[in-house]
Amino acid sequence: MSTKSKLISPAQIYARVKEEMRSYFNTGAIDDLLFPLWTKDCIDKFEYTYLPLREAVLDMYNYKCKLPCDFKSVREVWVTFTYDKGPITSPHVFYYQTDCRINPAPTPGNACSDCRPGYQCVPCSQTPTPVALPSLCDVPPEYVVTHKVMEQMMFRFHITGMLKPGNFKTIGRCAEDSPNLDTYAIDTFDIVGDNIVTSFSQGTIYLAYFAEHAIVPEDEGPDAGYYMIPDNEPFKKFLYYYLRMMVYRQLFDQSTDESINQISTKYQLAQSEVDTAYINARNYAISGDIYDSQKAIIRSYNRNNRFKIR
């Protein structure tokens, strides 16, 4: 599943948390150095839902090729082949006529006034040229030679097929909803290190994959290096409550016996808010739009088709 909304910087949420809890940050009891790691933990709780979905076309050579540098897991893997066959005789035929004499001597007065002797006879009234082949002007039939021209062409066709994982380790590198897990193809693929290895030596691979976490570009100023988050309210609320909870947890680990009870109460309250926010964000992440609902209805109608006797 790809991201359901665009990605933004979490800087505003960081600033809000630090402003609301500034008494702890101003005293130096805690800092925001772990905020990016906690943000990554929030994204990982939703597995592949908020990871970027990207595409790549790879050329296989000697049974393997390099994976993209930001590759994380497989969404789809397809193999494509292009075959060239030919030349094939074209069904289209072209005819034309010529005078076989080297030095024709036309009879004076027999040629049309608008034509040249030895050329196609096309009177002014025949515009455009009629479909039937016109005769040569002022050329006896015994000297007329009809030529037949047949062309040749190349024929190209493509074959596309889905590959299946070759072993259990490769299955673990595929997303849970990857269609490659359910295919019955003969050709296989494996993920070995930073290479994809196939059961055929050469070919072209189409790869749809989940990339690593998106990071704010360096030209964005002070926000550069932060993990980008989806721009939807349920997730932003979940991240907000999660950061607050982790702040209380870190204070709880650093607290003394005099303040441990107070910090513990705040931590438990923050944890309950996180659980509620996570449920709302999870429901939003797995909810489908109108097109997903339509596909689910069609699948429910066709779920028993495999039991029909044809």
3D structure, described in words:
By secondary structure, the protein is α+β, with helices and mostly antiparallel strands. It has 7 helices and 10 strands. It folds into 3 domains: 7-50 and 215-289, no CATH class; 53-83 and 159-211, no CATH class; 85-156, no CATH class. Helix 1 (11-20) crosses helix 5 (233-254) and helix 5 packs antiparallel against helix 6 (260-286).
Gyration radius, rounded: 37 Å
Q: What summary fits the major beta sheet?
A: 4 strands, antiparallel
Shape, please?
Answer: elongated
Read across the widest sheet, the strand sequence of neighbours is: 2-9-4-5
Q: Number of domains in the coordinates?
A: 3
Compute the number of strand runs. 10
Strand content: 25-35%
The computed structural class is: alpha+beta
Average of the residue pLDDT scores:
77
Task: Describe the secondary structure blueprint for this structure.
Elements: E1 7-8, H1 11-20, H2 22-26, H3 35-44, E2 53-60, E3 64-66, E4 71-99, E5 144-162, E6 164-165, H4 168-172, E7 188-192, E8 195-198, E9 203-211, E10 229-230, H5 233-254, H6 260-286, H7 290-302
Parallel strand pairs: 6-7
Antiparallel strand pairs: 1-10, 2-9, 3-8, 4-5, 4-9, 7-8
Helix pairs in contact: 1-5, 3-5, 5-6
Report a brief summary of the structure.
By secondary structure, the chain is of the alpha+beta class. The protein is built from seven helices and ten strands.
